[in-house]
Design goal:
about 240 residues, mainly beta, 4 helices, about 45% strand, cell projection
Length: about 240
């Protein structure tokens, strides 16, 4: 084991400096490459949940010319089928402020004493003794969290599936490259066809199981992330 220690240390030291993946190595001196068209549809491939209720039996409309996909007579059709596109409106303005304080105090004080008085063959010894225990513990904790988020975006999503109850699975992705940094917006979830308005748009708070991701990749993101080896050392380090 002692013979392997230098090799292990050398390997860890090498990994601690490895922050470049094969893709980023290919991009040295170049802007990060953008994802192929259609890759955003794989962002959140949730399984077709069989626990969802089945769609109720449709009423027989006979020879009616009315289509559920038409929100209004003079508006474009709403997305209802696989492959249709709708617009997701994301307007997040959240603010949270938490302040917690905990204070615990405990004190123990116990004293025991005894006294003996007897006569042995005219000798009268006297015993008087006592002992005690004192204990005290204090704990004082305080924590606060302040968070503020604001995000206003529009992204087009594609209907990737239709559940048995008629609800739609949607997934959308948007990439914008600026100065060797790609900003990526992903959105996925389940929507009701009734919530898609006449403009073929839906607000993010009406998306069930919503998964919204806004981040990026590129030169700035690489600098902000610690090396892979350092992350492994932080994960498995006992101290």
């Amino acid at each position: 084991m002692t013979k392997l220690a230098p090799a292990i240390l050398a390997t860890v030291a090498l990994l601690s400096g490895c922050s470049q993946t094969p893709q980023t190595i290919r991009e040295v001196g170049n802007a990060p490459s953008m994802s192929p068209i259609g890759s955003g549809l794989q962002f959140s491939q949730a399984p077709q949940l069989a626990s969802y209720p089945k769609r109720p039996h449709n009423m027989n409309n006979g020879y009616s010319l009315w289509s559920d996909s038409q929100a209004a007579l003079f508006k474009d059709a709403r997305a209802l089928n696989i492959g249709d596109i709708l617009t997701v409106t994301i307007k997040i303005n959240d603010k949270a402020d938490f302040d917690n304080e905990t204070k615990l105090e405990k004190s123990n004080d116990r004293t025991t004493a005894w006294k003996a008085d007897a006569t042995i063959f005219g000798w009268k010894p006297k015993t008087d003794s006592s002992f005690g225990f004192n204990g005290e513990s204090n704990a004082d904790g305080k924590g606060s969290t302040t968070r503020s988020e604001q995000l206003n975006l529009l992204v087009a999503a594609v209907v990737t599936g239709v559940l048995e109850n008629g609800n739609l699975l949607i997934s959308g992705s948007q990439e914008v490259r600026v100065n060797h940094e790609i900003r990526i917006l992903n959105v996925a979830g389940i929507v009701r066809p009734q919530d898609v308005d006449s403009e073929n748009e839906i607000s993010y708070e009406k998306i069930a199981e919503a998964r919204i991701s806004y981040g990026g990749r590129g030169r700035v993101t690489e600098i902000q992330q610690p090396p892979v080896g350092q992350q492994l050392m932080d994960l498995f380090s006992p101290i």
